[in-house]
Amino acid sequence: MEARLSFVTLGVADLARATAFYRDVLQLPQIAMPDGAGVAFFELGHTWLSLYPRAALAADAGVADSPPAAFPGFTLAHNVRSAAEVDTLLAEVAARGGRIVKPAQDAFWGGRSGYFADADGFLWEVAWNPDFPHV
């Protein structure tokens, strides 16, 4: 398999609410879709973020739509170019209505990070790692 991730699709409880969070709070560039498409897309460089109704996503995958766990076992991450940017970005997310889960703090691995949750509780880490080249 070629080393590439094309889409991250999040199964969301309320597509309109989730779309508003990513468009208005995180201010991600949304890809225009026809009215009633039932999906939202946001371009993240070479990877796209897709929002799709949770029950429909489960049906598409052929699995049962079970209640979401308090922690689904994964996080999404956004790396920034400096330690100060971690604080700045988390403050911007909070000011626009995002919920901070873990405030910015120095990390044991030598960087700085904090977490926020989207409208469905998916966790995003905002991190600066002095040894990570991809920002």
Automatic annotation (TrEMBL):
Matching Gene3D superfamilies: 2,3-Dihydroxybiphenyl 1,2-Dioxygenase, domain 1
Residue ranges of every copy of the VOC domain listed in the record: 4-129
Transmembrane segments annotated in the record for this chain: none
Domain of life: Bacteria
InterPro entries to which the protein is assigned, alphabetical: Glyas_Bleomycin-R_OHBP_Dase (IPR029068), Glyas_Fos-R_dOase_dom (IPR004360), VOC_core (IPR037523)
One Pfam family in the UniProt entry: Glyoxalase
Name by which UniProt lists this protein: VOC family protein
Species of provenance: Vogesella indigofera (Pseudomonas indigofera)
